[in-house]
Design brief:
- The protein has about 475 residues and is α/β, with parallel strands linked by helices.
- The protein folds into 2 domains: about 290 residues, Alpha-Beta Barrel (TIM Barrel), CATH 3.20.20; about 130 residues, 2-Layer Sandwich (Nucleotidyltransferase, domain 5).
- It contains 15 helices and 16 strands.
- It has an 8-stranded mixed β-sheet with strand order 10-9-8-5-4-3-1-11. Strands 14-13-12-15-16 form a 5-stranded mixed β-sheet, sandwiched between helices. Strands 2-6-7 form a 3-stranded antiparallel β-sheet, with helices on one face.
- Strand 4, helix 4 and strand 5 form a beta-alpha-beta unit.
- The longest helix has 22 residues.
């Protein structure tokens, strides 16, 4: 089933107030995610539903997925951490509560945290993630704290409850536990009701849907249609992350993780006026840094918990942060001039290419909109579709281990095999540097490597690269 495709919405079509809300939010703006950082504070341990893809793990530093955190925090500890991190990572622009349970199943901790943040870190955007069950009960508080961005996980809009019953074993609502179809119907009713209320209040809503093979992949176009009707701003299709060692029900039952190809297929089916988020990293509940990195292990409790709010406010240095963000915006304007208007979010193959044939291009980057990372250190790749007329961003793809792990990281594994599997459908790799050995390995899967665009803006380099290698065209000046 395919969603109805209508006219393209560009950033220029968005109202100025919406542009302001998303400009430095790395989750709501694909462009911003290479320049601004986020932090998730793990103040919400409890959850009021059970999902078969979730296992909330604590004191865990070796898994990168939702529901995982190294430690739980009180509201006071959380705000101290924000001030500590914000002084060191001055591109920090967003504070989110995304677990490890559900923010609205822990309303006291959640709203106390937001209250303290308004007092001590007034420059950051406040963001909330929720399963949607309790939005209607807390809509006034959400609005009163000026929370402009709320993410709701909505995996199905099947009113029969059959699909939902395969995803949610139980829902706990108003001191009663519901199961099976009854639980799924109740959850869906409350999710739709909550999303409507958020949109009515002018709050930007992002809907997350987990693509679960064999369960809801054919349902996602229906989700897309419904959220378009509701006025949702952004739709994010996330692949199921499923391994037995994660301890989730789906993992233990042998339900496989969703592939990049499956996500791309789902994105294509749901290419409607609701913007697709293609750059999600499925962050931990305590994630810190740019979306392409996680620095959570750098900020242990002891590094900030004994300091006073007054000391941390001084360290946070609001005036310097304002200057840093102004410098980031100057750089972003320069990048836009360099890249031009070649990135076409909703373009077809025919619009991207004069021949109707496009290529997939993988990029290594550390952020800032540049090809500024060596292949050997890359643990993720940005993927673009490109022709000789234009480009569009498709997704990012992670690998568990970089090609060069260093002597301490050697465990007998051979990371290039995973990298080759991850990039097997790509045609061109643009990277800052690559050695002869990995370059030869990539050639075996017909993937060309090119380091001639090192430290250049990503988007224009993607177009130049495909013209250079595949279209026999003069490279853009």
């Amino acid at each position: 089933m395919s969603c109805t495709h209508s006219s393209t919405t560009t950033p220029n079509d968005l109202h100025a107030d919406i542009l302001e809300k998303i400009n430095n939010h790395p989750c709501y703006s694909q462009d911003a995610h290479q320049h601004y950082a986020r932090i998730h504070v793990a103040v919400a341990p409890a959850c009021n539903i059970q999902c078969n893809y979730c296992n909330r793990k604590y004191d865990c530093s070796n898994e990168s997925r939702p529901g995982v955190t190294s430690y739980k925090m009180t509201p006071e500890e959380a705000v101290k951490k924000v001030l500590h991190v914000g002084g060191l990572v001055q591109q920090l622009s967003v504070v989110g509560i995304a677990g490890p349970g559900d923010g609205l199943a822990n309303p006291k901790q959640t709203f106390e945290t937001f209250s303290l943040l308004q007092r001590y870190a007034p420059d950051v955007k406040l963001c909330l993630s929720t399963n949607g069950l309790m939005i209607s009960e807390h809509i006034d508080q959400i609005a009163s704290f000026n929370i402009e961005h709320v993410t709701v996980t909505l995996n199905t809009v099947d009113e029969s409850g059959e699909i939902g019953s395969k995803i949610y074993p139980w829902v706990y609502y108003h001191h009663k536990r519901y199961r099976g179809v009854e639980a799924a119907k109740l959850l869906l009713k409350k999710q739709i009701e909550g999303i409507k209320l958020l949109v009515e209040r002018g709050i930007l809503v992002k809907v997350n849907a987990v693509l679960i093979p064999g369960v809801n992949e054919d349902e996602l176009p229906n989700v897309a249609k419904k959220i378009k009707e509701l006025g949702v701003f952004l739709f994010n299709i996330m692949p199921l992350i499923s391994k037995p060692e994660f301890g989730t029900r789906f993992g233990l039952d042998g339900v496989k993780s969703a592939t990049s190809k499956a996500v791309m297929k789902a994105q294509e089916k749901c290419g409607i006026d609701v913007k697709l988020m293609r750059h999600c990293r499925q962050c931990r509940a305590d994630a810190v840094g740019l979306l392409g990195e996680d620095r959570s292990d750098e900020f242990a409790k002891q590094s900030f918990s004994d300091q006073s709010f007054e000391e941390l406010e001084k360290h946070y240095n609001l005036n310097q942060r304002v200057k840093t963000h102004a410098n980031i915006e100057t750089w972003r304007r320069a990048l836009k001039r360099a890249n031009g208007k070649i990135n076409q979010e909703k373009a077809s193959k025919e619009e991207l290419s004069s021949t109707g044939v496009t290529k997939l291009v993988a990029i290594t980057t550390k952020g800032e909109g540049l090809i500024n990372s060596h292949f050997g250190s890359a643990k993720e790749f940005l993927i673009y579709e490109a022709g000789d007329l234009g480009i569009k961003f498709i997704m990012h793809r992670k690998v568990e281990k970089a090609y060069c792990m260093g002597q301490e990281g050697c465990d007998g594994s051979y990371p290039i095999l995973e990298i080759k599997e991850t990039l097997k459908d790509c045609d061109l790799l643009l990277t800052q540097k690559i050695g002869e050995c990995p370059e030869s390995e990539l050639k075996s899967i017909h993937l060309l490597s090119d380091e001639s665009f090192a430290d250049q803006p990503i988007e224009i380099s993607v177009l130049k690269g495909v013209r250079k290698h595949f279209f026999n065209a003069v490279i853009l000046k």
